[in-house]
Design a protein that fits this description.
Blueprint: E1 29-32, E2 38-45, H1 52-56, E3 70-76, E4 81-87, E5 91-93, H2 105-108, E6 109-113, E7 116-119
Antiparallel strand pairs: 1-2, 1-5, 2-3, 3-4, 6-7
Length: 125
């Protein structure tokens, strides 16, 4: 390896993310920077890992780079609960704003502790 290389950049077909690590972890409460929803992280992809069709549906002017962490969220807005897939650049921490009301939270988390949800022991890896 050279001074500018890493184990990931030296492997054919594997590109290292532009952002070196995820800012959020399962249990963290986050809010979208542009859209009016918030949620709880339940999984993290180190780089984009959804369909090209999904990615191309995002307007080009606001389409995020693929080479950054993407988060699976149990999300809520004023009128619904759903699962969202959001880039790191579009999320900010929001644990101080209180709990999230998503019907699937109890299946994966034990409860709220100091602004973040505790992952149930059975779901840790």
């Amino acid at each position: 390896m050279t001074a500018k290389s890493s184990p990931f950049t030296d492997m054919p077909g594997v590109r290292a993310p532009l952002i070196e690590r995820a800012r959020f972890a399962p249990g963290d409460i986050v809010r979208h920077r542009m859209f009016d929803f918030r949620g709880v992280v339940f999984d993290v992809d180190p780089v984009f890992s959804n369909s090209d069709e999904w990615y191309e549906a995002i307007p080009e002017a606001i389409r995020p780079a693929k080479e950054q962490p993407f988060y699976h969220l149990m999300a809520e807005s004023d009128d619904s609960s759903y699962i969202a897939y959001v880039s790191q650049q579009n999320l900010v921490a929001d644990g101080e704003a209180g709990p999230v009301d998503h019907p699937q939270l109890a299946a994966m988390f034990d409860g709220l502790d100091r602004g973040r949800y505790r992952v149930r022991a059975i779901h840790r890896h």
